[in-house]
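Project standup — Tuesday

K.O.: blocked on the structure for the chain from last sprint. Re-posting the sequence here as requested.
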Amino acid sequence: MEAIWHSMCDSVPDVRADWVPALIRGTAALAHRAFADHGLDDLLAFIDRPAPTPQDRAALTLDTALAHELRFQPSRAEALQREALAACRLFRVAGGFTPRSDHPLRLLALVARGNLMVNTPLDFITAHLDVQLDLLFVLPGEGLPSSVPEHDVAFFAVSESDPATLDRLRPLFRRWPRPALNNPAAVARLSRDTVASGLAGRPGLCNPPARRIPRDPVAGRQVLLDGPALIRPVGSHAGQSLRKLENPADLAGYLRCVAGDAFFLTQFVDYRGTDGLFRKYRLICIDRAPFLCHMAVSEHWMVHYLNAGMETSADRRAEEARAMAEFDTGFAVRHAAALEALNDWIGLDYFQLDCAEAPDGRLLVFEADVAAIVHLMDPPDLFPYKPAQMRRVFNAFDRMLRRRAGRA
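H.V.: unblocked you, prediction finished:
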């Protein structure tokens, strides 16, 4: 009911050239330090600054919330974020790693309250571009502000994990006074079960059905497919509570150990290569063009870049470097039909795809999302091939913004 009420009552804000939001350090600047093993005290010292106005104090509190989340204190982070947003909902991310010109492209991102998986983390990209990024928080139970800062492009950055806010944003996307990217109606279709059903039978894609089941061992056993299956709580990401069930009897034991009201159950596809290793690719699609952000190689079927041993294996890094160098003439060509079908169905200007190559040569889709971090935080001495590749990604994003803004 709340989403319906807001869709009827939210007015499109006016645009004001004289509005200058309070500055925050932002997620990317803090995450780079956290990734380099800086502790909470170091992060708090980095963001410490005078805060003479209520808006400045809200900005400092929001940065403090980010610092606590990055140092694994989610409850404290949530409380601080709510405190900050009660005072102010509009912030400007301080300049990044690229010097600003006198006329940067102005990007306004509409975001939701929540943890780092709720919104597209745009400042990891814009920090490397001549782009001024403003964040407008859309809060439940509160209308939009009557005006927002002038901007060239708006990016609707709320992810699939907040369906109520996405519903509220749908009519605003159609009526926004500046060019807008990432239609919330398309983002809302990125749940695992909807993606699986929507992509079923499309050319070149291997996409096992994902079935949503309640917390009921009997109901779960009724939908378990032949062979091993993967189970995870609805709304989880990054392998959180993801397990492989070898047979239906394993389901009851899993439910005893894992919290959650609903779960996704998916047939397991053994995608290991002829050498017995698993390879997972993270692609970014920008204006329909695919780019490889990383490829992780692991002995385990549940592949995550940070635990795949990439830092300790020169052979795996060399393989990833080759995959990046040959992507446009290799992977992208092999899976051109599948990537075309994905773009057609997903219909977003920007999204991430976690995938692999199935034994039969098709593209095996794990997840499509808009909230993954696209970054350049890996140490360049170990990953000297990554800066050039990630600059290609950042520049493609920049071209998309400028084309939509009429500044190409």
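K.O.: great, moving the ticket to review. The chain has three domains: 2-187, 209-267, 278-369+378-405. The longest strand covers residues 289-298.
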